[in-house]
Amino acid sequence: MTILKNLVLVALAMTPLCMYAQMPDTTGIYGERKDTLDASVFSANGNGNFLSKGKEIRTEVITAAGLCKMACCNLAESFENSASVTVGYSDAVTGARQIRLLGQSGIYVQMLDENRPVMRGLSAPWGLNFVPSQWLESIQVAKGVTSVINGVESMTGQINMEHRKPTDEIPLFVQASVMNDTKTDINVASSLQLDDMGKWSTVILAHGSGNFKPMDHNGDSFIDDPWGGMFAFSNRWLYYDPSGLQVRFGVRAIHDGKNGGQQLGGSKPWKADIYNNSLNGYVKVGVPLNEDNTRNMAAIVDVNWHDLNSAFGGRPYIADQRSVFVNLLYLDQHLEAHHFTFGLSNTLDMYREKLVRFSYADGKSLEYQGSPILNDIGAFAEYTFHAGEVFSAITSLRADLYDGAGVHVSPRLTLKWTPEEHLVFRANGGRGLRYSTPLIDNIGVLSTGKLLQGGFMEHPLEESWTYGGNATWYLPFDKSDKTYLSFDYFGTRFVKQMLVDYTSTGIEFYSLAPGMFSYTNNYQLDFSSEPFRGFTVTLTGRYTDARQSLKHQADDIKPMTSRYKAVLNLQYAARLNKWIFDFTASLNGPCKVWDFMKSDPMYTDGFTPVYPILYAQVTKRFKGFDIYLGGENLANFTQHNPIIDSANPWSQSFDASCVWGPLMGVRVYAGLRMTIWKTEKI
User: Fold this and answer.
1) What are the angstrom distances between the C-alpha of 6 and each of 19, 171, 265, 372?
2) Which residue among 146, 388, 401, 568 is buried most deeply as judged by most CB within 10 Å?
3) What is the pLDDT of residues 408-428, one digit of tens each?
4) Which residue segments constitute the domains of the chain, with CATH numbers given?
């Protein structure tokens, strides 16, 4: 807290530096591209979630207003208004969160920080918790395969985060909130323009959060949410020259310590202690090659270090990761209808892993170690054709050389057709590839006593094909485009995939074999409207058919995957937005449980129950600051006995990884947002 206090004082002291005119910010180092996931303008009101009309790819935008509708302390809590993205816990003891998109795990979603790949490898299990939502000005969720510029790991979609910009006219922003379970968050942001010409600007972002009191509401001796704290600091810089030259660079540091499990006593408690430390630095340079900036070159270098020191029931999992991402691009947009992008990239990940597990068969500890080096060198070309506002097509081809797996070529195609002003059709499809990191991808397996079997220390290349489309009708009586009806379908077919298969005493890892399959079909319907000024209604429904052939399961329904989800969001903003009322209700459909779980009377039909989650928040806005009060999970639904055999945590049947529902009941919170806006220099 002392660090955060000092940052606030520094930001206040530097406020006079901000009283100057600024240059407008841009959406990214690549320049203005119609197929880029653009940033949205930071705003405290307006639609919180909407489908972008201009994007070639079906893209849902969560704005700054959407990030203020609920507590949204971090990125993991920012998708509650969306049926597209489902967020759940990896297990019941570590606090790790995972997302699902198109019925597949979040490891198949490419996460981007302003078009830089992030949350890869060791940071993936906890990465959603590492991004404070109040650091962001928008999130864009694109379904299906996307641009090949950043690689082909976007197998089911892409989520791009736009942070607060150095050029924002906000010398100081402070947000703080506290929940009834002692969970506390504080965020500080300061955007500073450092010279009269507006060439240099920077944004300082600081975050501190923590749970200070272990709580066990269901009485199973395991605390419901890990206690501990996280501190994060980021400093982003922009140099903008009137000639068009841009240089962006920054650093981010994170320390996160969490303690879960049996923290409230006992002679031999089972504990989960997880400590993450990471340091990231990047530089992005854009160089115009002609006066109107229609030809330019860009270079991106991103370096990341991550250290994980953890123990599950006293058995360590220690790992570190060194990663380098380099991307070199040439863009040619001098022809209005024809745009070209060419580039080379390299993604290098170097891991060191050490895992200790206990074998109940012979009573000995088993130690596994590995130091894999995963390298991907790629070359790509992308061509975009625009026929005015009526039709556009993006065709791309990328060839990647993977260490140990040879050369793989990935084609992708995106089409958009607007036959008339109020009707938009989209379609896209292509190939996706990624290295599997089985233990990291399935971190919840470490919160069990089960025997790990198969290739959990291997790193095979996974391959999929995803295709789908979207039709959106903007109702003609609403000129603001806030009223629309949209339907989309996307399917994913895996050719190669690392599968995880549970039994009562073991977890087996193996790859898809001939005759086996893994696929999903995903359908979604969205409706949004503003019946009268200040009142918005958003209704979304999603149905997922996920199938997977596994050795130890009786049928091919993919376990632990929700069949459907429906979300209703209502918002009313009074005159001048002095009062804002938000209400969100979601209905979460059943998922098939692992076959060994069917012995529990709760799962006699092999499926989890349908359950609701309710959220509500009221915000009172004053000049320069807001106060808000809200509640989460107001229906007070929690998963009954989320930990299997919690009374015997040192047994082989102990399992805290089979989580499908909320772990905590009703929670209420209160918060404050304060903004100091820049004033003109006199």
Assistant:
1) 22, 15, 37, 41
2) 146
3) 999 999 999 999 989 999 999
4) 2-676 (2.40.170.20)
